[in-house]
Amino acid sequence: MAYWLLKSEPDAFSWQEMTTRHRDCWDGIRNYQARNNLKAMQRKDVCLFYHSNIGKEIVGLVQVVKTYYPDPTVVETPNPWVVVDVEVIKPLRVPVTLEQLKANPLLADLSLIKQSRLSVCPVKDAEFEVILRMSQTTVR
DNA sequence: GCCAACGTTGGC
DNA sequence: GCCAACGTTGGC
Q1: Any residues with CB less than 8 A from the CB of A137 and at least 6 apart, and which?
Q2: pLDDT given for residue A72 in this prediction
């Protein structure tokens, strides 16, 4: 099982909305590196839900419930873009801010920090554990 | 609002 | 194939 981080601007799609829908397809990814990460996701993989721009914090956990398929919002053919379906697991008990992530030496290598523009980032097992501990949350 | 980082486009 | 111009993301 792998771990990932999904970014969303709360103005466009917030954690609040995610919990209302409970399950949703993660569409709109238009970056090849991010797309390749989507393609690598397996069912049951856990994703950290991050609010970019506003909040700048990880606020919840979702899991992959359907592996990649063509992005239905794309009309051109061939369609190079894909989505996965994700489902809410739970909110973090305590959100973890970007500031905290940056301040933690164990997370110096975090993809979110090193490559700030990538909207679907891999998270290493050890990094995930550290972040989860910071959030005072357990996965299930 | 600004700017750094980075991706994409198009002229040559 | 190089690189300048331009667009986008996202932190500050």
Answers
A1: A61, A90, A92, A93, A94
A2: 93
Protein residues in reach of strand B (CB < 7 A): A 31-33, 115-117
Task: State the pLDDT at residue A137.
Answer: 97
The answer to whether the beta carbon of residue A85 comes closer than 7 angstroms to any atom of strand C is no
Average pLDDT value for residue range A63-82: 93
Sign for the CA dihedral angle at A38, A41, A44, A49 comes to negative
Region class of A39: left (phi > 0), else alpha (psi between -120 and 50), else beta: alpha
3-42 of chain A touching strand C, CB 7 A cut-off = 7, 9, 30
